[in-house]
Design a protein that fits this description.
With 551 residues, the chain is of the alpha/beta class. It has 23 helices and 16 strands. The chain is globular.
Length: 551
């Protein structure tokens, strides 16, 4: 029985290795930020799987750890898998690493998992799988016990210590109390951020939305001055305009990075781009590149302190209710069939046949394969109420797309050598939203109105909005979502391709066709799925080059 633990030091994070304990991140225990020594002492007390479970339920913050004992190995990630871990148990060898490519190399796995590759068109691989069969990942909110037995091999036991589920503890009449509680809990979350940063420069990607705005408002209220806000995209885009207005009102410094098709082509033909793909994918997530060049440009402008901490507003909207399906409060009867259909439309509308040069083996009956994998991953056998319907939908979001694509985008900051902190996925804030009734969460109505009210109370100024454009974008987005996976979408893409000098998504300020090679556009622009599909195709075509890179 062989156990190998390998920590790749060139991925951008500092890991502490002491004896048989390996850990990284910022661990809060009972609202106290632990020093490295205190964190080590805390992990040292873990000698059984029950010890590990008990500790994880008490921890807050963002972390991953590996603990090796005489005949067991305990591996865990935080509630949102913000710092991924990967493993393989091939031929009675347990290999655990923070680097999926290191695991792939040790297993000599060079063939794609066909189902995983097909699934990857939705920007991530479901469950513990990755693009390669022998490379596995630790799921969000999971801890795993590997029991080493010379007779029976390696026994694997996974325990999910965190699941986002509803309680419906309150009702609609409790809204005033819940709004006050929301701001109070989030204020404590920002206190923990400030404690973690310890005076370091805070970098806020400030959009026109509510999440980054709420972070800015709380920092303003607490008198935190060392803050730099930034926005990016096409010149004069509405996101940047609103972002600057908010930063100016609150007195924060602000920077803008312009994106053009030509710049995207230049950026995506650099060695840095390929290296970022190598670091960010974990062979399970489509690398998020939207703000990758913006951080690069800020670094070149020398606007960032070397020890700066990025504080994006990731997944605040998910907590507030953007992922709660309207069906859950309608008169429609929720059931498994409705759940799978809506999930398929929203996340798997790109499950079309991939080009043969990428995936030669066609996956038959993809719809049934998808249903089986989702059912297994979520451990769901029936849905008979609105709460169960919403739970299933949000459990999927918090186990798959939110951690593996949205939250995984923090790899951008690590790649350029910077730290990060995610205020919205603080444990207490997540627990708060579990109790907010669906009727107050759907459409983010309570959250948006509470943030607007907070803005006016702090500044005496009506919060800036661009509702006309946002509303029209939401209608267009809804129509596009429904027409995807149909022949109409193929025609739509072909028409766009004829407009040689136009971006694929003219209303999207940040995503441009210029990021793709001309060959990619020429050959695959007619495929249904649009931007996501082309992004996936380009990444899969680059894998052979990515594998050759040394960190």
């Amino acid at each position: 029985m062989v156990v190998e633990i390998y920590i790749e030091k060139n991925l951008g994070r500092n890991w502490i290795e002491k004896g048989n304990i390996f850990f990284t991140g910022g661990l809060f225990h009972e609202n106290t930020l632990l020093t490295d020594g205190q964190a080590y002492d805390c992990l040292l007390k873990v000698t059984t799987f029950d010890d590990c479970k008990t500790l994880l339920k008490k921890l807050n913050g963002f972390f991953s750890f590996i603990i090796k004992t005489q005949n067991r190995v305990f591996v865990a990630v935080d509630r949102v898998r913000s710092i991924p871990l990967f493993y393989s148990t091939k031929e009675n060898i347990l290999f655990v690493s923070n680097d999926a490519e290191a695991v792939r190399k040790i297993t000599n796995n060079v063939e794609f998992n066909s189902i995983a590759v097909q699934e990857f068109t939705a920007r991530m691989v479901c469950g513990s799988d990755t693009l390669f069969s022998d490379v596995k990942q630790v799921q969000p909110g999971d801890c795993i016990e590997f029991e080493l037995n010379n007779t029976n091999g390696i026994n694997i036991t996974a325990f999910k210590y965190f699941v986002f589920t509803h309680s419906e503890k309150y009702d609609k009449q409790d809204r005033p109390q819940l709004e006050v509680q929301m701001l109070s809990v989030f204020s404590e979350c920002i206190d923990r951020l400030v404690d973690y940063a310890k005076g370091r420069q805070l970098i806020l990607p400030l959009s026109a939305g509510y999440d980054s705005r709420l972070i800015a408002l709380m920092l303003y209220k607490k008198g935190i001055k060392n803050v730099l806000c930034f926005s990016y995209g096409m010149k004069e885009n509405f996101e940047a305009k609103i972002s600057k207005q908010v930063a100016d009102i609150l007195g924060f410094k602000w920077e803008f990075i312009e994106y053009t098709d030509d710049l995207w082509r230049e950026w995506c033909h650099t060695d840095e781009y390929l290296k970022y793909l190598r670091i960010a994918s974990g062979w399970s997530s489509l690398p998020h590149i939207q703000d990758w060049p913006a951080v690069w440009e800020l670094k070149k402008r020398r606007k960032l302190d070397n020890n700066a901490v990025f504080i994006p507003g990731h997944v605040g909207d998910s907590l507030a209710g953007s992922d709660v399906p309207f069906d859950s409060i309608s008169n429609c009867k929720p059931n498994m069939s409705r759940f799978f259909y809506n999930l398929f439309i929203h996340y798997y509308n790109n499950l079309q046949d991939l080009p043969k040069e990428i995936l030669s083996n066609k996956i038959n009956n993809k719809w049934q394969v998808f249903k089986n994998r989702v059912s297994k991953a979520l451990e769901i056998t029936s849905i008979s109420s609105a709460v169960e319907y919403a739970d299933a939908y949000e459990r999927w979001n918090w186990q798959e797309p939110d951690p593996k694509f949205i939250i995984n985008s923090v790899r951008v900051y690590e790649f350029w050598g910077y730290d990060w902190y995610l205020p919205f996925v603080d444990k207490d804030f997540m627990e708060y939203w579990k109790d907010v009734p669906l009727c107050l969460r759907v459409g983010k109505k309570m959250y948006n109105e509470a943030v607007d009210k907070f803005f006016f109370e702090l500044t005496g100024i009506r919060p800036p909005h661009h509702t006309e454009i946002v509303a029209s974008r939401s209608v267009v987005k809804s129509i596009k979502t429904r027409m995807k996976y149909t022949w109409l979408h193929s025609m739509y893409l072909k028409c766009l391709f004829l407009l040689k000098k136009s971006s694929f998504e003219k209303s999207d300020t940040n995503c441009m066709h210029g990021r793709y090679d001309k060959e990619t556009i020429d050959r695959y622009s007619h495929y249904r799925g649009g931007m996501n599909f082309l992004e996936v195709v380009q990444f899969l075509k680059n894998i052979s080059n990515v594998m050759k890179l040394e960190l």
